[in-house]
Design goal:
By secondary structure, the chain is an all-alpha fold. It is 63% helix and 0% strand.
Length: 345
Amino acid sequence: MKPGPGQYAPTAFLESLMFVTFLSSLALTAAAQDVAEDAPILQLEAPAAEPVSALVDTAEDYAAYHSVIADLRDAPIGSANDLDSAMDRLTTFYSDERLVRAWIAYTAMIAARHPEYLDDVRELADYYGPQAAMSGLMYDPAYATSFTHSADAQASVVDALDRDTAQIREVSERYRAAAYDLQTGNDGRWARVRARDRQDRLDAITNAGEREIALDADISSLVTSGMAASELFQPTSAEFETESMTPQLSLTVGETRANPDRTRIGRILSVAALEDLSTDPQRSSDVIDALLSDPVVERCLAWVRLDLQQCVAAGHYKYEDSFCIAEHALLDVSRCLGASTGTPN
């Protein structure tokens, strides 16, 4: 049957329909390309890194100090420059409040690894209000040691300080022994020549605070790990990390442990608690900043600097500098930074 007037043959109709569809598809594709060209490009940015708190930043200086102590365990003692370098690196931390603030901040990070203690503090803040809790911790730091679960936090802090001061004393003994070896041994002739650098040495101690402090990034990431600072540089630090929350309280037979000073340890625990509360960042920062200043330890380190300067001024030979480093730049500092105001017998 033939199509009537005005009618398309089926084949012609299909061909026409396919052509129209092709043109429509082409037009849509072109439009989509125009839109794509004009549309903004979505770029996913990497999330910004969380800012490092001022407390952690301060604590890094204490870790840096123990990196120096660790280096001095094996550093050469074979020239005048070796002794000068050791003295300079140590005294960098002894000016003003630098080491004191870092010491408190770092050990506060250890106390903060005890959530039960922090829960006790939060309960106090919930009951009396954050401002009242902050004021109580600030004006009576020893109060922080009276919380139900503060004993474990105290034990971890005391244990860490014992580890740290033990390493300082170990390095002190090395430099004390070196002083005698340089005085009598054949390899110490350079150390028995009269030193002409006394004023330079005294000036270096006086200007020690102008030197920069640097810490390796890998160590910086461990500041909040709960490890004693001295353990960060031990070959077995990976093994210690699994035990860092368990205080090692064993004593050698015949050795006595001095009772920790409640105000000193309480100050450290208070800093950890206040950092955790942080309802008012500015207020918390001001209170924490005040607690990072420990007048007793600051006076102790001030005497260290004075005694070191007097020792250097009185010395005539470089081997005597090794003794000054051992006695004042190391041993006296270990006494200042212990968990107690006294030393065990």
